[in-house]
Structure prediction request, 206 residues.
Amino acid sequence: MSHSIDDTAAARHRAKMEKRKAVQDAEVAGKTVEKGLLMVHTGTGKGKSTAAFGMVMRCLGHGMRVGIVQFIKGAWDTGERHVLERFPDLVTCRAMGEGFTWDTQDRARDIAAANAGWEKAKQLIADSSLRMVVLDEINIALRYDYLDINDVVEFLKTSKPPLTHVVLTGRNAKQELIDAADLVTEMTLVKHPFRSGIKAQPGVEF
Prediction:
């Protein structure tokens, strides 16, 4: 159903949008700082890693080099890994986890895997040729104290190159990390098919 707009209404709309554009343009013009961001994707909802890999795709579109460390899902055969393997000159991807803690049932192994992942992450973050580094599911390793949150935050504050973006994903992000971050997004669970007996499916969950 179409709605006709008379000349008076059209003029009012145009004037309103012109004012809004002027405000927006002035606000954008006032933002002049460029820096590498520390970004946290957390919360109970789906999409934390998905959003991070979306930014990886954007970086690839700009020809930027990216590093990825997967802390927990390392044992999984994921679709994103198959895609990123097609860009060996731009992407360094390391799967350092062995699955969720309830899979391994071995805290010592989980701690060792998390620390190996963090050592690789530090190498990638320190490499100024990488424009973005994704630490996928590191928040889970931090939640279970497999890694020292103070060591992680201190490294990110002092050793990250000025223009490098770092994205940390996973539920239950610790407050110290949230306080240090430039951008924090909390994914909220409203409805999930798993609760209705629907299993995880390729192309959606992995």
